[in-house]
Design brief:
The chain is of the alpha+beta class. Helices cover 31% and strands 25% of the residues.
Length: 419
Amino acid sequence: MDQLVVRGGQRLEGAVAIAGAKNAALPEIAACLLSAAPLTLLNLPALSDVDTMLALVAQHGVRVERGPARVTLDAGEANGTGAPYDAVRRMRATVLVLGPLLARFGRARVSLPGGCAIGARPVDLHLKALSALGAEVSLEGGLVLAEAPAAGLRGARVVLALPSVGATETAMLAATAARGETEIVNAAREPEVADLAACLRAMGARIEGAGTPRILVEGGRPLGAARHEILPDRVEAGTYAVAAAITGGRLELTGARLEHLASVGAALEAAGVQLWPGDRGLVVERAGPLRPVDITTEPYPGFPTDLQAQFMALMATAEGTSLIRETVFENRFMHVPELARLGANITLRGTAAAVRGGAGLRGAPVMATDLRASVCLVLAGLAAEGETTVNRVYHLDRGYEALDRKLVRCGARIERRPG
């Protein structure tokens, strides 16, 4: 396994191109299974999670033609055979093929997915959404078995117990083929959900309200060929914003959209970081000292859980004490012991972490436990004195396109070595 060696103390300055959003690309790849006509996705990020999802739909008979930052998916000869565990064990987003397979072929047989160990993240909300549309759903030997009625799925009122992004997407994907209108209540409001809806509309679906708690889908419309450009990755943009802040630098994040980072921008500005829209995206700069800021992770438009670890690394370098509350995933503080190895002073109390900054970070060997934890350790290494070795960076490659190369171009001293 590769490792990254980070030598801290370098101020970052320059421009970083923000790639397409991973969390939009994955469900949009799954959406190709809904139609026999080709779907072309532009601004496709080069990530191992994207590779995994493309391999999964290829196993279902989809022809994949990939080029730089784009892919054309032809599901004209696709089939509804099951997704074996080996194909889905690497990430949880693979469950998103369940709705399209059920909608188009009337049945689906998919292994329960794997992924980062940051919490239970059960699939029960996905299954309840499909059941509301008339499917018979069961779990058997690690498999999800779903079958539509002979007359097909029917539109219904789908009420989600939580505003789950994945369950909202599963309901939308399946509802495009259901007879009649489907109302999704307590839907997730994330920009990636709205982007999936835009992709489905390009294919011919009729969807209203995506990005709000109530989504309406008029099902049963024929879907055809489409082209769709994936929106920029707000989590990647937020990560590089923290990189500029933690090094006292200045970065232009080309393609980034400030409106998707409102809560993150507010927290950064409260910490003494400046953000403003530029001609090509978003500019982030810190010239003065960092101030401590309290945050609580929440569903969008609240502070995203996917940026909690990065913000904790930043607060470990601020003067004073910050309180960070995690309300989305129960195990998303696994990076805390590794930050402590770098000298961070963090006290855990249940779902809250008190971060006492000011002591300074020192380089040390650390181990990545999940995707966002891995990048938080790289960020901490940028601010630490001496050399930090981040092990198990395969997590990093799942969600960040060429992170080490992008940082090096802005002045960071990072070397990738075979582990």
